[in-house]
Design a protein that fits this description.
heterodimer, A: mainly alpha, ABC transporter involved in vitamin B12 uptake, BtuC, two-stranded antiparallel sheet, two-stranded antiparallel ribbon, 16 helices, globular, B: alpha/beta, Rossmann fold, 2 domains, seven-stranded mixed sheet, four-stranded parallel sheet
């Protein structure tokens, strides 16, 4: 019975739960195919090469999904990542404009991201009773505030030394570097979450933090690591965003935290913790990217695209409930 | 019977079609215009005229709006357009340098890139259609400041964002003019404030200027949002400080006149800008011009134009000197735009 409630440590990936998630991923794959068929009919220019060409600017956000999945599985949330993206893009743009070697620019992004993430992690593990939603709401305001102060009156900065940034947008054949990096990181994050002891412990904490603690899991150490990694990935996102838009402004990364959470939830990762896996999240990210490119090619207003994505998300969270009800009805 | 009727009509249509004159300048061309943002009445005038002119010449036209008035939003839009085999893109840039990689990608794909209203850097474009030469505008504004202050005293500038390409060019040119001629030597430019083209922020900045500089005589706002917000604030508060700059007659109607907050202000004809951009873009697609200095072409009713070297090292065509709007003509122009 413990398996059914999803509240046990050892039984997390057991049969009934696993079956449901598997079927959800199945639905997502079908949806991905349908979205691509739709886009191909909708836009005469939609094909693999135009998709690969237009993808990079949307892929930057997907870096946030990877660690966000861990945080959601923990049963927590980090809404400060959009601000971390803004701050890292701003700081690395400033460093870039000084003419520093590009490796220094990359390091700046990673270090600024890591520091921001570690600040979240430190507060959350030092004061364990504080809700992550409130703490990261505060740091969201603080990190963006710092970026705004740094950006000054004009509220924006543009890259004047674009050489290194252009390198980042390079391609092997038609495949952009960002896609390679994303695939590599996605595999690592998915395997660690799904197959390693570390991943098991994340599920254990998300299922029941107290039980995990008494079972000898270093709950706080693990949370600190995950929040710091979240920051590092925000740094990667900020760097790629900088390389595609050659600048940063006070709106850079705004709403990215919600996009990442939406991708994860759409992918079947429960925001109450302990459930879901990364594969679903990555497929749902692909669905969103394909839709954005396809609709964009017919110059559909960006706001209308957001509206469509919102409706999709509602359907996605409502559907498992409907399926569950249908199953129960059939069983009776 | 019916079939015969249909085929007869088809034949008739074909004959008519072949007789119709096919000399339209934009026949079969597919043009896109990228504006700065949605909901900018000023930009809509140029966009409307662009569409009307090009469509009358037989081109298909798409006006595209980025989701936000930022360069990264325009980059997404350009990405979309490059996929769609347009013949040309006319853009008003939200940032001078940020669009370079994307616009070069467009040019590499064989798309002609013209710009209007706000130019991207010379490497990012083939031509810039300038609403009024930078120097002409700056000169008109400096003379307005000189006239309204009475020749001496403090004045300030209320601009859009600190990155706005056209505003910065005008401000720099104004500073140069002020330094070069002795008649401006008694004018003191106390501050360049940035209202970010947001009404609220422009109002706040105006209030701050008045508070910080009680002796301020004139605010010059080379942006439609800024001048509108500042004029309202100055008039509502009965301030002695006057406003001038670049504005829309319909938005400035209540505030313009000798006894009001704004004695007079300037603007060019945005519709003329859209029309000239359309003819320029079509001429480039048709191969009549390449965008190099010295190229000449005819822009419909606007007359003949010549491409010249721009101050930033690129090339441009200049629509003409700005036009003055005052208490006498404001009513009439407010009806139009």
């Amino acid at each position: 019975m413990a398996g059914k409630s999803g509240r046990s440590i050892n039984n997390v990936p057991e049969a009934p739960l696993k079956k449901m998630i598997l079927s959800w991923e199945g639905i997502l794959v079908i949806l991905l195919v349908l979205v691509n068929i739709f886009c191909a009919f909708y836009s005469e220019f939609y094909n693999l090469s135009s998709l690969l060409r237009q993808m990079p600017i949307y892929l930057a956000e997907v870096f946030l999904l990877l660690p966000m999945a861990y945080i959601l599985v923990l049963g927590e949330i980090d809404i400060s990542v959009g601000s971390i993206v803004c701050l890292t893009a701003t700081m690395s743009c400033i460093v870039c404009n000084t003419g520093a070697p590009f490796i220094v620019v990359i390091l700046t992004a990673l270090v600024v991201g890591a520091v921001c993430g570690a600040v979240n992690g430190f507060i959350l593990t030092r004061f364990t009773e504080l809700p992550p939603m409130i703490v990261t709401l505060a740091t969201q305001i603080i990190f963006r505030g710092i970026a705004e102060v740094v950006l000054g009156d004009g509220g924006s900065i543009s890259a004047t030394n674009t050489e290194g940034l252009i390198l980042l947008t390079g391609k092997v054949g038609q495949i952009p570097y960002i896609l390679f990096l994303l695939v590599i990181l996605a595999v690592i994050f998915a395997v660690v979450l799904g197959k390693s002891t570390f991943g098991r412990r994340v599920y254990a904490i998300g299922t029941n933090r107290l039980t995990a603690h008494y079972s000898g899991v270093h709950v706080q150490k693990l949370r600190f690591i995950i929040y710091t990694v979240m920051g590092v990935c925000s740094g990667i996102c900020g760097l790629f965003l900088l390389s595609s838009s050659f600048g940063a402004n006070t709106t850079t990364g705004k709403g990215f935290e919600m996009d990442a959470i939406a991708m994860a939830v759409f992918g079947g990762i429960s925001s109450t913790g302990g459930k879901g896996n990364l594969a679903g999240g990555i497929i749902s990210a692909l669905i969103i990217v394909c839709l954005r490119v396809g609709l964009g090619q017919r110059n559909v207003h960006a706001q209308v695209i957001l509206l469509i994505l919102g409706i999709l998300l509602i359907c996605a969270v409502a559907l498992p409930n409907l399926i569950g009800q249908a199953r129960r009805a059939v069983k009776r | 019977m019916n079939k015969k009727l249909v085929s007869a009509m088809l034949c008739g249509a074909m004959v008519l079609g072949s007789v119709m004159p096919a000399a339209a300048a934009g026949e079969g061309q597919k043009l896109a215009m990228v504006v700065k943002s949605a909901g900018n009445a000023f930009m809509e005038l140029a966009a409307g005229a662009f569409k009307e002119t090009a469509e009358a010449e037989g081109a298909t036209v798409e006006i595209v709006y980025p989701e936000a008035p930022t360069a990264d939003a325009q980059i997404k839009v350009l990405d979309n357009l490059i996929s769609q085999d347009f013949d040309a893109i006319a853009i008003s840039a939200n940032d001078v340098n940020a669009l370079q990689a994307k616009l070069q990608e467009a040019m590499d794909a064989g798309i002609k890139v013209s710009s209007f209203d706000s130019a991207p850097n010379p490497d990012s474009r083939q031509i810039f259609v300038n609403q009024a030469g930078t120097v002409e505008v700056a000169q008109a504004l400096m003379d307005a400041v000189l006239d309204i202050t009475g020749g001496e005293g403090q004045w300030a500038i209320l601009s859009a964002t600190s990155q706005a390409a056209n505003q910065n060019a005008w401000i720099d040119a104004m500073k140069t003019i002020m330094e070069e001629d002795d008649k401006y030597s008694k004018l003191e430019l106390v501050e360049v404030a940035y209202g970010d083209d947001l009404p609220d922020k422009s109002t706040e900045q105006t209030a701050a200027l008045l508070q910080n500089y009680p002796d301020l005589k004139v605010i010059c706002a080379p942006t439609t949002v800024g001048i509108g917000a500042a004029a309202k604030y100055l008039q509502d508060n009965g301030a002695a400080c006057k406003i001038t700059g670049l504005g829309l007659p319909s938005e400035m109607k209540e505030y313009t006149g000798d006894d009001k907050a704004c004695p007079y202000f300037y603007l060019w004809n945005m519709e003329g800008l859209g029309t000239l951009t359309a003819y320029t873009t079509m001429a480039m697609v048709a191969g009549d011009i390449t965008g190099a200095a010295g190229d000449t072409y005819t822009a419909g009713d606007l007359g003949d134009y010549e491409v010249v070297e721009a101050a930033d090292g690129g090339t441009e065509v200049i629509l003409g000197a700005p036009m003055e709007f005052n208490g006498e003509n404001i009513e009439e122009w407010a009806e139009i735009f």
